[in-house]
Write a structure and sequence with these properties.
Number of domains: 2
CATH class of the largest domain: Alpha Beta
Number of helices: 14
Helix content: 55-70%
Largest sheet: 3 strands, parallel
Order of helices and strands: EHEHHEHHHHEHEHHHHHH
Structural class: mainly alpha
Shape: globular
Amino acid sequence: MSKKEVIVSGIQPSGEMHIGNYLGALKDFVKLQEEFECYFFIADLHSLTEDYSPEEKRQQITDTLIAFLAAGLDPQKSTIFVQSHVPAHVELAWIFNTLTPINELERMTQYKDKSAKQKKNINVGLLTYPVLQAADILLYHADQVPVGHDQIQHLEMTNIIAKKFNNKYGEYFHEVKAHMKDPVRIMSLTDPEKKMSKSEPGSYVGIFDEPEIIRKKLAKAVTATDAPTGEMPKGVKNLFDLLKEFADPPAGGNTFDKFDKQYKDGSIKYSELKSDLAESLITYFAPFRARRAELTKDTEALTKIMKEGAEKAHTVALKTYKEVYEKVGLVWS
């Protein structure tokens, strides 16, 4: 029996999980765990580069774990853990820091973007973020990493760091490939020119939003946006994209076809489109809300999952780190 390829990916605990996050990552994670050896982690160390309060951060970490589990990630099929619970991530990142030229990091698009957004907090972590990300990936000798097009540059940096290590200390890390999927770009409900963001209340639907909240948010969704002749307005297209993903029967089916036909013949009523989409989202995420209610009451189960996941990850990470220690000439006590 051939060994399964390794997949590694993480999500930052930096706010409420919304349907854009779900379609962009979590939904795919659930499928990947059936085919690959998966390491899915809560990237709490990465999230420290942003402005936050310690009290919020602790809750965000727990909430992200609950979102993982409610979405269908299974601790029996995947290694699920909190990044900071495995110290080798930071330790390997330091070794990689000594190999990575500053100019390589300064050209990273995400560093420039985040620095522009948080001008009063341009910390070293924003610059070295890709180095820690390389450690996250290479600790587990990942074969593939699920990435969107905006993360390709970071994966390229991971492979650059791996090559620099191999050239200096001998062949050890192999090239990591991108696990690409069809891009899913869900736009803001209130400003369809922008990507859906948890930083803008009302612009997103959370995966745990209550039914009435979903109905209110969809009712206010923008549809009347300018568009070139013959093109669907971005706000309308966003609603159709969501309908295709979440309406029943599968992949939108009859519901999508009905509204598509109405749009083309000019008889569409956007209030009905929004209402049907809201009910589809309510139905789709009902099991998520129920699972969340169960998990929130069972803190012992959550602690057990975090502890066991960290132990499994630590076993693999420590083996890699010991071998790296030996290669770079450090002494293991």
